[in-house]
Design a protein that fits this description.
This protein has two domains: 1-185 and 193-199 and 211-220, 3-Layer(aba) Sandwich (Rossmann fold), CATH 3.40.50.300; 227-327, Orthogonal Bundle (Helicase, Ruva Protein, domain 3). It is built from 15 helices and eleven strands. It has helices spanning 4-25, 33-44, 59-69, 85-89, 126-130, 132-138, 173-176, 190-200, 214-224, 231-242, 253-258, 265-281, 289-300, 308-312, 317-327, and strands at 48-52, 74-78, 90-96, 102-108, 115-119, 140-143, 146-149, 155-160, 179-184, 259-261, 305-306.
Length: 336
């Protein structure tokens, strides 16, 4: 069992290393400060990330940069409508052994790496999308009755085109739920575009250093699980989750009108895990309700499913969640 002094020392080191990571990434990535923070928060919380944005915003390059500075082995899957599950997971092939006999051998697919980029995941068919479910949840692939585990640490970062674009298949709710965070990649502003032009139209890319190893990453992940969460903070997080459900008596009128399904318990797990990291980054060793609110949008925006009326009126889920957070009463100081 760690002492409070040991935990405080490890968390202080984590904050320093986190800042170093961001600085190294931003040698190559222009802007996206908040986006980078959220991605790293998910990684240190042992969660997968779904990035949504139009093509050409550097999502793929961002993942490649992350794998380099984190010292992780990258893998990549480029999704197309004709992609098959075996193209992602791997397949059995016939080989000859030393005795000349034919034997079945499992040839591993590109998911057998530390940081997997699944590019344009909603261009793959539902059958292929579903192949990722076991990988993301169990960190393993079952093929031919055999179970093959992923190398650790293991993360999936998927990019998704906006649903309005042609040739896309919506991800099923069960698969969306496997992603800890859904992050929206904004279009860069004028200053960022100018800086992108300066950095990317030459002959050389910035040289990046690996500033962390997989072992160190795992150590920090373990330390963050010990950040305490008071009972009243956990109760507030649970109330936020319940307020996303239209059948809950205390939820807002907008949720009752526009929402079909609310967040699953995985949303609560994502809230708590993300809030722990935000608390440490803010220099504290215990989670507050502000940390929960900071993690709420990335954790819940893909877990709130609009009904027909909500879809027809193009209701903004982020706006709905902000209204919801304003309507849920904060725990009283007496409860603390």
């Amino acid at each position: 069992m760690k002492t409070s002094e040991q935990l405080e020392s490890e968390l202080s080191e984590f904050k320093t290393r986190f800042d170093n990571l961001k600085d190294e990434i931003q040698k190559s990535i222009v802007g996206y400060d908040e986006l980078l923070t959220d991605i790293l928060v998910a990684i240190f919380s042992q969660g997968h990330v779904l990035l949504e944005g139009v093509p050409g915003l550097g999502k793929t390059y961002l993942v490649r940069t992350l794998s380099k500075v984190l010292g992780l082995e990258p893998g990549r899957v480029q999704c197309t409508p004709d992609l098959m599950p075996a193209d992602i997971l791997g397949t059995h092939i016939v080989n000859e052994n030393e005795e000349g006999r034919r034997v079945l051998h499992f040839e591993k697919g590109p998911v057998f790496a530390n940081l997997i980029l699944v590019d344009e995941i909603n261009r793959a068919t539902p059958k292929t999308q579903a192949a990722l479910l076991e990988v993301m949840q169990e960190h393993a692939v079952t093929a031919g009755g055999e179970r093959h585990t992923m190398p650790e640490p293991f993360f999936v970062m998927a990019t998704q085109n906006p649903m309005e674009m042609e040739g896309t298949y919506p991800l099923p709710e069960a698969q969306l739920d496997r992603f800890m965070f859904k992050l929206r990649v904004p279009f860069p502003g004028k200053e960022a575009l100018v800086e992108i032009s300066k950095r990317t139209t030459g002959f050389k890319e910035p040289e990046l250093d690996s500033v962390m190893t997989g072992t160190e990453l795992a150590k920090f992940q373990e330390s963050l699980t010990h950040v305490p969460v008071a009972d009243h903070v956990t109760a507030y997080a649970a109330q936020l989750i319940l307020a996303t459900h239209p059948e809950d008596t205390d939820t807002s009128d907008r949720v009752k009108r526009y929402v079909s399904y609310g967040s699953s318990p995985r949303g609560l797990q994502a809230l708590i895990r993300g809030a722990r990291v935000h608390a440490v980054l803010d220099g504290r060793t215990a989670v507050s309700t502000d940390d929960l609110r900071r993690a709420a949008l990335p954790s819940l925006r893909h877990r709130v499913i609009l009904n027909f009326e909500g879809e027809a009126e193009s209701v903004d889920v982020d706006g709905l969640l902000r209204d919801l957070m304003d309507s849920v009463p904060m725990p009283s100081q007496a409860a603390a």
